[in-house]
């Protein structure tokens, strides 16, 4: 999940104490604090250094000028300030010295994500139906990433003899345990605090629940996590919910009012001049833009979709090998317009009669997933009947990427 609390120019920030920094390469690091970790670019270390002592957002942005070589680097680092705050590595100064002070908004440690998932009534109900269709009396069920424990509780109610609820976030593991006790399910459900890869079983499971589908569908490591669980923890005839994950791309026109939230405009530049007494008019010159934006597909039904959904991959989770993907395909434009985005959606086949979809024409109004929309380097004017080559790539470092080229 990727949500945030917007920062104002006078908002005071400070780097939280006790961050562990691990170098993955000369340009990549992993920041760790308590149960949270953040793989990112080594350039964020400049931001953490600048905010060693309390500074306002405006002061920090100004200080970044001395740490960057060009506008693009400066823009990327200013964006990292918000991200570091969202993830709890920059905090309000009164919390900076605490060991575990501020839960990052949108992280799995705090209530926000879990509220959104529980309030996504369609998600919960379709999983419940699939669990009722799949779980048999006497089954051993594993729930990977149990969170509040709702799916584990549904499995127990469906007749499972034993459920192991796996949760790596300590605070959530304890909360789930309380939920099970409150509902008199603690004799059936046991909580395993840690990653699924750390679990050892004498008896293999009949069913695995794996609702670890991210906004960028594969970003929560569903492929590697399920592959390990299938190999070590599931009976040969065992079942997985979901058992199939389909990935789609939708070429579309992003409305101008949405794009304005992600690109430099005259209005932005005037606001910044008023706030910071600095002239940022040079930013209106052409430069590299973000590789993607995020948007809830439930609010895109009225957008201009330029083709039918393009199937990128159909992943049978019980048979998946590896986590990286590269797919090449073609698509035909069905509607004339401006191609300035490609939205990635998924359909998860949960059981024979149950499918969960984030495709705009199928998604529920209460959907909590925020789809990744890849942005091409150049917007393309397209006409009905035009054909394009499309390459989709996924890897853990960069997530999903899409390239399109005219076949002409």
Could you outline the blueprint of secondary structure elements for this entry?
Blueprint (H helix, E strand, L loop, with lengths): L11 E4 L4 E4 L4 E6 L2 E6 L2 H7 L4 E2 H7 L7 H16 L3 E2 L19 H9 L1 H14 L5 E5 L5 H8 L4 E6 L2 H13 L6 E5 L11 E5 L12 H12 E8 L2 E10 L2 H4 L6 H11 L15 E4 L8 E2 L4 E7 L8 E8 L4 E3 L1 E11 L2 E4 L13 E4 L5 E3 L4 E9 L3 E8 L2
Parallel strand pairs: 7-8, 7-10, 8-9, 10-11
Antiparallel strand pairs: 1-5, 1-6, 2-3, 3-4, 12-14, 12-15, 12-18, 13-20, 16-22, 17-21, 18-19, 18-20, 22-23
State the name of the first-level CATH class of the largest domain.
Answer: Mainly Beta
Instruction: Tell me what portion of residues adopts beta-strand conformation.
Output: 25-35%
Any idea how many domains? 3
What's the alpha carbon Rg, rounded to whole Å?
23 Å
Globular, elongated, flat, extended or rod-shaped: what is the shape?
globular
Main beta sheet strand tally, sense and closure:
7 strands, antiparallel
Give the count of helical stretches: 10
What is the number of E strands?
23
Mean pLDDT: 87
Characterise the protein shown here.
This protein is of the alpha+beta class and 408 residues long. It folds into 3 domains: 12-95, Alpha-Beta Complex (Outer Surface Protein A, domain 3), CATH 3.90.930.60; 111-209, 3-Layer(aba) Sandwich (Rossmann fold); 246-406, Hnrnp arginine n-methyltransferase1 (Distorted Sandwich). The chain has 10 helices and 23 strands. Residues 97-106 have low confidence and may be disordered.
